[in-house]
Amino acid sequence: MVNSLTGRFVILTIIFVMLAEVLIFLPSVARFRLDYLQNRLELGQIASLSLLATDDDMVDPDLERELLANAEVLNIVLRREAMRLLVLSSPMPEPVAQTYDLREAGFFELIGDALMTMFRSEDRVIRVIGMPVKSGGTMIEASLYERPLRQAMIAYGFNILRLSLFISVLTALLLVIVVRFILVRPIKRVVQNMMRYRDNPEDARRIMEPKSRVSELRQAEETLADLQTQLTGSLRQKERLAGVGGAVSRISHDLRNILTTAHLLVDRFERSEDPTVKRTAPKLVSSLDRAINLCESTLAFGKAEEPAPKISRLLLAPVVADVIESDQLREIEGGVAFETDIPEDLQVHADGEQLYRVFSNLIRNARQAIEESRESGSIRVRASNGGDGCIILVSDTGPGLPKKAMEHLFQPFQGGVRRGGTGLGLAIAAELIKGHGGRLDLVRTSAEGTEFRIFLPVPDPAAA
Hints:
This protein is of the alpha+beta class. It folds into 3 domains: 5-170, no CATH class; 203-304; 307-457, 2-Layer Sandwich (Heat Shock Protein 90), CATH 3.30.565.10. It contains 10 helices and 12 strands. The protein has helices at residues 5-52, 61-71, 107-119, 147-199, 215-269, 275-301, 316-330, 352-372, 403-407, 424-435, and strands at 75-80, 83-89, 98-101, 125-130, 139-145, 312-315, 336-341, 347-350, 377-385, 389-396, 439-446, 449-457. A hairpin with a 3-residue loop joins strand 9 (377-385) and strand 10. Helix 1 (5-52) packs antiparallel against helix 2.
């Protein structure tokens, strides 16, 4: 109960109400003491009227003791017409210990006197001075024992304490009832939904349906529903990808055999005397080699990650030239121009085959974007040494990336940059560069074109 939200809410409510009652108690008990003393002065003034009504200002001693006992005072002094008269009196058991003038007492002084009275143990005789009621004189004072006053104040304090506890418990119960409907029940509903969703997260019927009318809880329910929707979609996509992966493995096995046969046939083309065939056959053989290698890598893949790159030192310019020359053979309309600005002696530490795939994906995406715009354009590849690595910029003058592609640019099957694309090209390129310890970043994209930045670090000699 204590560790529950309801239990803690009850305890905190009682504590806060009691703190408020303590702040109210001090002025209240000071006011009670003031009223008590004022009442004794009024009773003393009424008792003095019996004496003032006689002709000789004398009363029977028994009547005097009875009047003082009823007023709960020891003596009464009334000042009238500039005369100070001892109206009623009885033998003083001890000297007056302290005098309190109620005519000039301030707020904090009354609180301090009340606290001192409550915590004082001895029974003292005190004198109280005040103003008579109904213009009965200019001043009235009375002497009385302090213990009855203290007992009355303590009894009053216990009454306030009992009332405060009752108010605290009642307030806490009422607040708990309200909070259970406003806060606790919606939270339990969210928890129950999470438990149901946990049992079968692929069931879209178990996704949270926001119903709360409290804005904060409504926002939490909407956020949870959005999270569950994304998770359910991701799980379904993973199932589809697992199925696609199995199919790709089977297709790659058969495709490898087909490509191997085609490779053997192309070997014969190299002996042809036709100049066009002689120029095209080596590129065709190279493409078939890469296709066969890709099939074999897919079959040996077995995991959702690329094989580790085989790092070696190689010249960058020939790799880029080979990619551009192969891409030009696929070009449809010939409206794309290629520019390179790569030093001939610039070397990088990379896997040549994987680096070829990276440039092939980037350049193919750029060419397709330019072709779809139905306008001529250019693709430019620049490279330079950055001290701790090589910086390569691949830019084009295409129409830029669509907004939808920007949200999931490097995510497979989500970051497609053209209609009908799978989004695998950039995802694979980013993963291959990451395997080299580098980064593939989008530098800019707009209606004037798009630019990607590749960073390939220099291997640490100690690590090597």
